[in-house]
């Protein structure tokens, strides 16, 4: 906090004035200022654990918020819908977060999956208008004609299938 206080800046400006008037040596003033900043930086780095603990008391981890909604195409575990702005899906297992369209609601689309990446599809609804999208394709379009943030409405949708077990 001292680094941004007006008193710190004021002290450095006073030393600049002394240099300008010839009453202080530039190299000595510079060395003093640099050593002060280094000491404060070192103290901050050594005490970041304390800051992390204070933040953990005030904030909830992303992986602990939201409600399960759709399956991740990478690990097939459920992702959580984080409804606070910005709305997004988070996969705790993959530690991946997928942005979603804002200003509406998101629901699972009949447990259907995207044929490109196996993510479960969701329906976005806002103001009476709705469209189906794949969370992965919405963030990382794989088809040349698919504009970023458009989903997969033009791709044939596949129903989710239960994998068959080998009879051996």
Structure commentary:
This protein has 168 residues and is of the alpha+beta class. Helices cover 31% and strands 24% of the residues. It has four helices and eight strands, in the order H-H-H-E-E-E-E-E-E-E-H-E. Strands 1-2-3-4 form a four-stranded antiparallel sheet. The chain has a four-stranded antiparallel sheet with strand order 7-6-5-8. A hairpin with a 2-residue loop joins strand 6 and strand 7 (129-133). The chain is elongated, with a radius of gyration of 27 Å. 16% of the residues are buried. The model is unreliable at 153-158 and 160-168 (pLDDT under 50).
Compile the SSE list and pairings.
Blueprint: H1 6-20, H2 26-46, H3 48-58, E1 67-71, E2 78-82, E3 88-91, E4 96-99, E5 105-113, E6 120-126, E7 129-133, H4 135-139, E8 158-159
Antiparallel strand pairs: 1-2, 2-3, 3-4, 5-6, 5-8, 6-7
Share of helix among residues? Answer: 25-40%
* Uncertain residue ranges: 153-158, 160-168
Strand content: 15-25%
Major sheet strand order: 1-2-3-4
Note the total helix count: 4
Q: Distance between termini? A: 66 Å
> What is the strand tally?
8
Per the principal axes of the C-alpha atoms, what is the gross shape? elongated
Look at the structure and give the mean pLDDT: 82
């Amino acid at each position: 906090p001292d680094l941004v206080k007006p008193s710190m800046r004021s002290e450095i400006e006073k030393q600049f004035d002394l240099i300008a008037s010839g009453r202080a040596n530039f190299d000595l003033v510079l060395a003093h200022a640099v050593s002060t900043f280094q000491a404060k930086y070192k103290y901050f780095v050594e005490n970041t654990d304390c800051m992390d603990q204070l933040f953990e008391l005030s904030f909830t981890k992303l992986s602990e918020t939201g409600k399960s909604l759709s399956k991740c195409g990478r690990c097939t575990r459920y992702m959580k819908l984080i409804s606070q702005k910005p709305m997004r899906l988070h996969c705790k297992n993959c530690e991946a977060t997928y942005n979603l369209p804002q200003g509406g609601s998101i629901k699972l689309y009949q447990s259907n999956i995207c044929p490109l990446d196996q993510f479960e599809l969701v329906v976005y609804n806002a103001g009476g208008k709705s469209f189906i999208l794949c969370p992965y394709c919405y963030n990382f379009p794989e088809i040349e004609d698919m504009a970023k943030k458009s989903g997969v409405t033009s791709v044939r949708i596949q129903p989710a299938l239960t994998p068959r077990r080998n009879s051996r």
